[in-house]
Amino acid sequence: MEKSYNITEWPMDSLEKKYVITEEEKAKSKYGNLVFEFPMEENECVAAGDPEDFVIHPQAYFRGARQIPGSHFNCSFQIFVKPFCIDRVQHVHPKTDEYLIFLGASFPNLFDFDAHIELTLGKGEDAETFIITKPTIVRFPAGVYHCPLNFKEINKPVLFLAASMMPMFGGIYDMPDGNSVWLSYNGPLPCKYDPNKKCDSCGKCINEKWQKD
After folding, report:
1. β pairing state of 158-164 and 74-80
2. Angle at Cα 204 formed by Cα 202 and Cα 206, nearest 5°?
3. Ranges of each domain in the chain
4. DSSP string, 175-206
5. CATH of domain 38-207
């Protein structure tokens, strides 16, 4: 018979703690490059016709392998306060899933939600458009086309997370001229190897491993 456990009664592990506090200690530690402090980001592009103040500043992003070597995950953390449209053209991630998360940002109640959001999944005759009016999570399996994503009405702030299972965000976009193009984006931050140069999504950093030599 399988033994049952009550995790609420477990004592705290009594292991000896080796604190890593300073940046110098972190640089020398075995696991230091797995702990990353968010930099503050500012939105660098606004689609034509959308208000520049649609999002609260600053924003937080986790930029995948650029920030934690070997990571196959990236995610946005944004609070939207005015209507606007993300990704006006459809795109697809051929090999990885993506998740979109919509929650209320009238903290502390994540379910205090008052918005009208339209999101399309599928392409052509297969396409279906969903209306989001409550806290919702959406999965885009690898190979499933998605977008446009239109925040048509925002009466209360919306907390939005876009989480992709890839080291750097990228996808195949259907361009207005009829072509399909792979586009990558790694944010407005400087290059990891040259602080005087803006990241151009070259992909060099995604080949790093988290283990130190």
Report:
1. antiparallel
2. 110
3. 38-207
4. -TTS-EEEEEE--SPBPSS-TTSB-----GGG
5. 2.60.120.10
